[in-house]
Design goal:
Elements (H helix, E strand, L loop, with lengths): L17 E2 L31 H8 L2 E5 L4 E3 L7 E5 L8 E5 L5 E8 L1 E6 L2 E9 L2 E7 L4 E3 L10 E11 L19 E6 L4 E9 L2 E4 L23 E5 L10 E10 L6 E5 L21 E6 L13 E10 L3 E6 L6 E2 L7 E6 L2 E11 L16 E5 L4 H11 L2 E10 L2 E7 L9 E2 L12 E9 L2 E8 L4 E6 L9 E2 L1 H4 L5 E9 L2 E8 L2 E7 L9 E2 L8 E9 L2 E8 L2 E7 L9 E2 H5 L5 E9 L2 E8 L4 E7 L9 E2 L1 H4 L4 E9 L2 E8 L4 E6 L9 E2 L12 E8 L1
Antiparallel strand pairs: 1-21, 2-6, 3-5, 4-5, 4-7, 6-11, 7-10, 8-9, 8-11, 12-13, 12-15, 13-14, 14-17, 15-16, 16-17, 18-19, 18-22, 19-20, 20-24, 22-23, 23-24, 25-26, 25-48, 26-27, 28-29, 29-30, 30-31, 32-33, 33-34, 34-35, 36-37, 37-38, 38-39, 40-41, 41-42, 42-43, 44-45, 45-46, 46-47
C-alpha cells in the first residue's frame, strides 16, 4: 500500500502533525468532564499502518519502523526490491520506497531469497534455520540468500535498514528551516524508532512534552522515572521540515516528570541557545477559544511525516488539568499518533503562548486508524497553572548564574530563585522541605552561595541558630544546631554570613555583641569569639563581605555603622566609623554589605526604613559618599535590605512596608537597572527579613 501525496492545510492555519478528520462537538458546559479524556494516548509507536491489509494483499507482514521505509507498488519509484516465494504479488517481487538516507522496517517475509537496491545501501536481517544473519547490500547491487544462497535453505526476511545513500542531492536541500515563527516546536525520537512524539522548547535546555511518550505502558501506568531516559532520545528543534538543514539536534540527558499530569520536561544535553522558547500562558483557554495545535504526527496519508503540521482548533470543556480540542472547521484536521507532546498555543501580544500539551485523541481519519473509528476529538494537558513547577525545574538544572532569595514570612522561611533570564520561581517553605524539617519557626537568616550550593544559617523563633545546605539539584540537607558545635549564645537577634573560599564565616548578634565563628570545608566549627571586644556595644545588626580574601564586617551600634576587617592571617583590624568616612545619616534600621571586585558595597535603610543609601569602600580604604537610592528604588519604606554578588554585579533587594519585594542591579559600569517587584507566589503573608546570594550551576 503506497502512501499518497499528503494533503496540505491552508496557508493561514500555520503547520502541525495534525490531519484530516471529523470534528468533535464542544462540551456543553464548563465543569463537565472532558469528552475526550478517555481517548487513547497519541504517541507514535512505529506500528506499520494498515499492516493487516498489507498482509492480506501481499503475504508479507510489515510490523514497525521509523516511517522512512514503506511498501510501494513496483511500478512506482522505489529504492529496495525483495523477492520471496510466498508473496501474493506478480513475479514474487515486493518493492519499498526509502526516500531518505536512513530508515528501518521490521518485517516477516517468509521465503525471501533476494534483495536489490537502488541508490541506497541496505543491511538486512534474515533468519535461516532459526539463526539470525546479517547481510550488507551496497547501493545499486543485488544479493541472493536463502534458497538463492550457498546452502539453499529457506529464509525469512526480518528487517531492512538503510545504511547509506549514493544520491548526489541531499534530501531536503533548499527546504525552509522554519516558518511562521514556530521554531520552538520539537520532534522527539525515542529509542531505535521505538516511539516518536512532538514537543515544545520552553527553555534553551528544556523541552516540554507528554509523559506517556516515555512510559512503558501508559494505559496501565503512566509513570516515568526521573533521570536519564531508559532509551536514547533525540530532539530536533527549529525545523518545520526535518530533512532540511539548520535547526538544533540534541540528545535528551534527563527526564523530569510531572507527578499528576501527562507532562514531562526533557533536558537537552546541548542547549538550543539560538531558538526562542515558547513561554507558558498565564491563564487557561476559555471554552470556544481558538488555539493552534502543532506537531509531527501522522496525517491522513502519511505515516511518520518529515514535515511539521499545524491547524486551528477550538477549546472545548476546560477542566482542572486539561481541555478538549476540536478542529475549527469540520473535516479539517485531526490529532494523530505522533502528535503527543505537541504544542497547543494561542497568540498573546503577537507572540505564541503555550496553554497545553497534546495528550489523547480518538484519531478518526488518521492513517492506520480503523475506519470504524469516526471520532476525531483530542485532549490537551494544561500547563498555564504550572509556572512554579516549571520554574523550579529550570532553577534546579539550567546552568548559569542565579539569585537565591530567603524571605521570612509568617513563622517560616521561604526560598525562591531568580534565573539568569530575570524570571523567578515561586517561594517554597524551607522547613517543609523533606530533609530540612522544622526548627520551630524562623525569624531571620543568612544565605551564602558556595560551589553552586546555598548555605543557609537561620535564627529560630526560640532564639536558636541552625545551619543547612541547599544543593544544586534543589535538595536540602537537615538542620544542624550551631550552638552544639560553636557554643551557646543568649538573646540572639540576627545573623549574617559570607564565604572565604571553602570557609563559611558567620557573625551572630547576641546580647548586644557581634560574635564570629567559622565552618571549614570539612564541616568543623570554631567556637564563637566576641569581635567587638568592648570597643563597641549595644550592637543591633551586622553585615559581612569578602574582598580579596579578607572578611569585612560592619555592625550597627547606636544607629551608626562601624567597620572592621579580618585579614587573611586571622588578625582583626580596629573598628572605623562609617559615617565619618561616607557621611552621616539618620539611625540605621537595616544593613547589608557585599564584595564586588576590589570594592565593598554597603546598603543601609535609615529613619525607620524611610530612606535608603548606598556607598562603596575602595580597596585603599577610602569611601564614596553615602548616596540616597530614592531615584533607584522609588519612595519606599524598607523593612529589610539585602545585597549579593551575582556574576560580578551588585544585586540589591528590599522588602517594604507595603508588602513588596523589590529587586535591582548595580552594573559594573555603575548604572542601575530598573527596579522591579518580585512575584511573591508561595508566601503566606507579608515578606519580612531578607537574605540573598548568588550561585552558579554548571
Amino acid at each position: 500500500m503506497a502512501l499518497r501525496t499528503r494533503w496540505w492545510l491552508p496557508a493561514t492555519t500555520a503547520t502541525a502533525a495534525v490531519l484530516m478528520g471529523t470534528a468533535t462537538p464542544l462540551a456543553s458546559a464548563a465543569g463537565e468532564p472532558a469528552a475526550n479524556a478517555g481517548a487513547p494516548y497519541v504517541f507514535e509507536d512505529g506500528s506499520y499502518p494498515g499492516s493487516d491489509q498489507v498482509l492480506a494483499e501481499t503475504g508479507a507482514k510489515l510490523i514497525r519502523g521509523d516511517g522512512n521505509i514503506t511498501h510501494t507498488p513496483c511500478d512506482k519509484p522505489y529504492q529496495i526490491k525483495v523477492w520471496a516465494r510466498d508473496l501474493k504479488l506478480p513475479e514474487e517481487r515486493m518493492c519499498f520506497a526509502a526516500p531518505q538516507g536512513t530508515g528501518f522496517l521490521t518485517v516477516s517475509i517468509p521465503g525471501a531469497y533476494r534483495i536489490q537496491t537502488y541508490e541506497r545501501s541496505v543491511k538486512a536481517s534474515i533468519s535461516v534455520k532459526n539463526e539470525t544473519q546479517s547481510l550488507d547490500i551496497p547501493g545499486n547491487t543485488s544479493k541472493g540468500f536463502g534458497e538463492a544462497g550457498a546452502d539453499q535453505s529457506a529464509a525469512v526476511l526480518l528487517e531492512l535498514r538503510v545504511t547509506g545513500t549514493s544520491s548526489t542531492t541531499p534530501p531536503g536541500a533548499g527546504q525552509p528551516i522554519d516558518t511562521a515563527g514556530l521554531a520552538f516546536n520539537t520532534k522527539l525520537t525515542i529509542g531505535d524508532g521505538k516511539r516518536s512524539c512532538s514537543g515544545a522548547l520552553v527553555d534553551p535546555y528544556w523541552v516540554l512534552t507528554a509523559k506517556s511518550c516515555f512510559a512503558e505502558d501508559p494505559a496501565k501506568s503512566n509513570t516515568v522515572a526521573a533521570g536519564p531516559p531508559k532509551d536514547k532520545t533525540t530532539a530536533v528543534v527549529g525545523k518545520s521540515v526535518l530533512i532540511s538543514s539548520g535547526g538544533h539536534t540534541s540528545d535528551i540527558a534527563e527526564l523530569a516528570p510531572h507527578p499528576d499530569r501527562d507532562l514531562v520536561m526533557a533536558r537537552l544535553s546541548e542547549p538550543a541557545t539560538d531558538i526562542t522558547p515558547v513561554p507558558l500562558a498565564a491563564t487557561a483557554p476559555a471554552t470556544g477559544q481558538e488555539l493552534t495545535v502543532a506537531g509531527f504526527g501522522r496525517t491522513k496519508t502519511e505515516w511518520i511525516p518529515a514535515t511539521r503540521h499545524q491547524a486551528v482548533f477550538t477549546a472545548g470543556n476546560v477542566t482542572a488539568t486539561g481541555f478538549d480540542l476540536a478542529a475549527k472547521t469540520p473535516a479539517d484536521a485531526t490529532v494523530c499518533a505522533g502528535d503527543a507532546g505537541g504544542a497547543a498555543f494561542r497568540s498573546e501580544n503577537g507572540k505564541p503562548a503555550l496553554v497545553g500539551i497534546t495528550s489523547l485523541g480518538w484519531q478518526g481519519g488518521c492513517l492506520g486508524t480503523p475506519a470504524t473509528e469516526t471520532r476525531s476529538g483530542a485532549f490537551s494537558t494544561r500547563v498555564n497553572d504550572l509556572h512554579g513547577w516549571f520554574q523550579r525545574l529550570r532553577a534546579k538544572s539550567s546552568p548559569g548564574w542565579k539569585t537565591q532569595a530567603l524571605v521570612q514570612s509568617g513563622s517560616s522561611l521561604y526560598q525562591g530563585v531568580r534565573l539568569n533570564d530575570g524570571s523567578w520561581t515561586g517561594f517554597d517553605d524551607v522547613q517543609a522541605q523533606a530533609a530540612a524539617g522544622s526548627i520551630g519557626g524562623i525569624r531571620n537568616s543568612a544565605a551564602v552561595g558556595m560551589n553552586g550550593d546555598t548555605h543557609v544559617v537561620a535564627v529560630s523563633n526560640s532564639g536558636g541558630l541552625f545551619h543547612t545546605v541547599r544543593k544544586q539539584d534543589g535538595t536540602w540537607g537537615t538542620w544542624g544546631d550551631v550552638f552544639n558545635v560553636a557554643g551557646t549564645l543568649g538573646n540572639l537577634t540576627s545573623v549574617t554570613a559570607f564565604n572565604n573560599g571553602w570557609d563559611l564565616h558567620v557573625v551572630a548578634v547576641a546580647d548586644g555583641k557581634a560574635l564570629h565563628t567559622v565552618r571549614n570545608a570539612e564541616g568543623h566549627w570554631t567556637p564563637f569569639w566576641d569581635i567587638t571586644s568592648g570597643t563597641i556595644s549595644n550592637v543591633t545588626a551586622a553585615a559581612t563581605a569578602v574582598v580579596r580574601g579578607e572578611l569585612h564586617v560592619t555592625t550597627v551600634s547606636g544607629g551608626k555603622a562601624y567597620h572592621t576587617i579580618r585579614q587573611g592571617n586571622g588578625n582583626w583590624l580596629g573598628w572605623g566609623d562609617v559615617a565619618g568616612a561616607a557621611g552621616p545619616t539618620g539611625p540605621i534600621t537595616s544593613i547589608s554589605t557585599v564584595g564586588a571586585g576590589d570594592e565593598t558595597h554597603i546598603v543601609i535603610a535609615t529613619d525607620n526604613g524611610t530612606r535608603q543609601y548606598h556607598a562603596v569602600r575602595n580597596f585603599n580604604g577610602t569611601w564614596t559618599p553615602l548616596t540616597e537610592l530614592k531615584d533607584v528604588l522609588g519612595t519606599v519604606t524598607a523593612k529589610s535590605v539585602a545585597t549579593a554578588n551575582v556574576d560580578g554585579e551588585v544585586v540589591v533587594a528590599v522588602t517594604t512596608a507595603d508588602n513588596k519585594l523589590l529587586h535591582t542591579t548595580r552594573h559594573t559600569d555603575r548604572t542601575w537597572a530598573t527596579t522591579t517587584a518580585v512575584p511573591l507566589q508561595g508566601l503566606p503573608g507579608a515578606p519580612g527579613a531578607l537574605a540573598i546570594t548568588g550561585t552558579w550551576n554548571d
